[in-house]
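Q: What changes when FE2/S2 (inorganic) cluster is included in the input?
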Amino acid sequence: MLVRYDRFVVEPRPFPFRAELLAPGVDGAAPDFEPVAATTDLPPGALRRVSRGELDVLLAATPEGIVAIDDRCPHMSAPLSIGELEECVITCPLHEGRFSLCTGEPVQMPTTGGLDPDGRYHPTWSPGGREAKVDPPGKKAEARRLTRVRRLRYYPVRVVDGRIEIALPTVPR
Ligand code: FES
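A: The predicted holo structure follows.
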């Protein structure tokens, strides 16, 4: 099946994430795949949550391939599956953080500010046209300041006979 994006047509295929971004607990050498969806359930640009036990996984059909990550924002765990996907970049529904599913990195810090994956501090910000947010000192401001946005971690994906399969953790995370 070919799927059409704005600028090109691709066959459903896994996104080739960098090895160091493998999700914890997954056996990268001998991944144990299980089917989670049909490729027809994940058209271009679609987001979908699949759950296995306590684990909620986000499937995303990007132009670079199918991505599987935790369905938890790397900021404060909101479900990314109800966010917005634009090519490789997903916007979180909670604090407008934007994250590249193709690099694992934030491309826009949340409005709350805080620490990026490298531990650098970013101040609070307000979307254009709105008054700048006052961030009164106290425990909540401190919590925002010390919250670190994590890098995304990926579950291996494969596509077999029109099915999307992912490898889940085999050891406790
Ligand atoms: S929970 Fe996603 S940006 Fe804050």
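Observations recorded in class: The two ends are 35 Å apart (CA to CA).
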